[in-house]
Amino acid sequence: MKEIFTPDMRLSEIIDRNCNLVQVISRVGIGLRHAGLRASEACNLAGIDSDTFILICNVYSFQDFVPSGEDLAAVSIPDIVRYLHGSHAFYTGIALRNLEAGLNHLVDPCEESMKEVVMKFFIGYKDELEKHFAREENEVFPYVSAILDGRRPEGYSIDQFEEHHERVDEKLEDMKNIVMKYLPGECHEEMRTWVVMELYRLRDDLRRHTYVEDNILVPVVRNLEKDGE
Amino acid sequence: MENRKTVALIIPSEIVSEGLVSILEGSRLFHVEEILRDFPKPSDTRLSNLDPDVVIIDPVVLDFRCRKEGRSKLADICESVVIALDGPAVTEDMIKPYDGSISIYDKQGDVIRKLQGALDSHQSDPAAEGGELSAREKEILVCVAKGMLNKEIADQLNLSIYTVITHRKNITRKIGIKTVAGLTVYALLNNLIDMSSVQ
User: Most A CBs within 10 Å: which of B141, B174, B177, B195, as the mutation test of the A interface?
Assistant: First the structure.
């Protein structure tokens, strides 16, 4: 494994190593104007725990990075939720909207029926994903914050979340293959390249996002549940 | 552990199966996940759930007349490479249909080499990713796109449910699409069905 990130590195250094982290940094509320600062200083200004921020950056950048028991013991759950919430806002507010516009443009030269088939598949996926996020926003996050307050709401546990946490990247993978390999030749070729790149990006981002939920949020909250019993 | 190939044995003799387990585990290349003493009954889902990389079968578990057919029977259950165990009650023509064979008199190294050889030639199967769908696969794809369940497809086409599952796996591998909604889009874009039959 490559050398992982630490809080004493400058943000600009971290971004130079993985430019996709620009997104993550903005999602947790750190402004790029602070990119010249050390991660720990920038985190202080933004009011986010720097170990948690660095943990997210490491998970996001290194496929073989596995959070240690120590990492999990030190993690700030409100900051993890802040990141997850920021990601949801990015997916629904920016990524999916841009993709939809790009796809519309891409299939514009095709026959009406073709357009309809492709857009219907995408809209169906978008609705599913938005429902998935809404459930986390409306059920899971409030539950987590209740647990953090030392309350234990009846009739729910983090195990239920884990059990119903369906895979959200499968249809996106299908979409990528459809756009890349099976769209008719008359579609907009330059747009096709752009859409394929965006689909790859969103897929990878969603996978890291899911990893944070399943391998950081779930085990830490499960421990908190046990402590409360 | 993850890189080891998974193996299931269908071998009635405990002496033979234990010997094989010791050779396979000792190589650190294979891991024996399941040992069956008899050919699985249709209701037995252990093999289809496990879908191991390799199945080693002693043809004597099958009735004398259908020992050759073990290979095709297993094809309905799983996609594994199937190796026949050659022993005193087994003849050459029984072994032919299988993907390879090992003898109970083989040395340890030979057993491993033969298994690896069979796995290698299985992987270069022309039906791998990117291949054209067969007529049967197209037929099944159309059923899936129409929203039919595996059981319904099996009944309509007179196939076993395992065969339907195997075809579906192959379709997904060939075209790179997993979800029903995605398969429907593929079928529509390729004019295998028209809009009216999916609404």
Answer: B177
